[in-house]
Amino acid sequence: MQRTITRILLILLGLYTLVQGLWPLLDPMGFYQDFPGFRHGWVSMDGPYNEHFIIDFGGLSLALGAMLVGAAVMGTTIVARLVAVAALLFAVPHLIYHAGHVGHYPQLDQMLIIGGLAVTVLLPLVVLVVPARRNAVSSTATP
To answer: What is the pLDDT of residues 105-122, one digit of tens each?
Structure first.
């Protein structure tokens, strides 16, 4: 069984990923122009608009978010770890790409982009290292 901290991390990362997936599916151009919504348009500053890539990113993010939340609900450690590996397989290349391509952003945006993406790597790593909850052994159980 999962520990409470594992469930919390899966749900937090899952909800963030679900929102990140819904926005480009519901409003691809808005996502392109305005993501993350509180700073400059980070996606639009990184290249020309491509609706196909925006929709694909949204769909894949939505699928990953559903898996993260589903793993928290299921409650098994093995499922949590499998989904954490899947999250890392997306997050690590995403972080590596942006780490090498932030020079054209203002310095604060560079820190926010790299810091935010680092969190998407850190949370699944924590899920992988948190030990499973031990089942309580009844003192009245017979050997």
So the answer is: 999 999 999 999 999 999
Separation between Cα atoms, residue 94 and residue 102, nearest integer Å: 12
115 CB-near residues (< 8 Å, 6+ apart): none
What own/partner pairs with CB < 8 Å and gap ≥ 24 does 116-119 have?
116/36, 117/91
- Smallest CA-to-CA distance from 101 within 85, 119, 114, 116 is with 114
**Tell me: the pLDDT tens digits for 66-103?**
999 999 999 899 999 999 999 999 999 999 999 999 99
pTM of the model: 0.86
Using DSSP, state whether 69 is helix, strand or coil: helix
HSE-up (13 A, CA, CB side) for residue 128: 12
Residues 79-83: contacts with CB under 8 Å, at least 24 apart: 80/2, 80/6, 80/10, 80/127, 81/127, 81/128, 83/10, 83/127
Domain ranges of the chain: 4-129
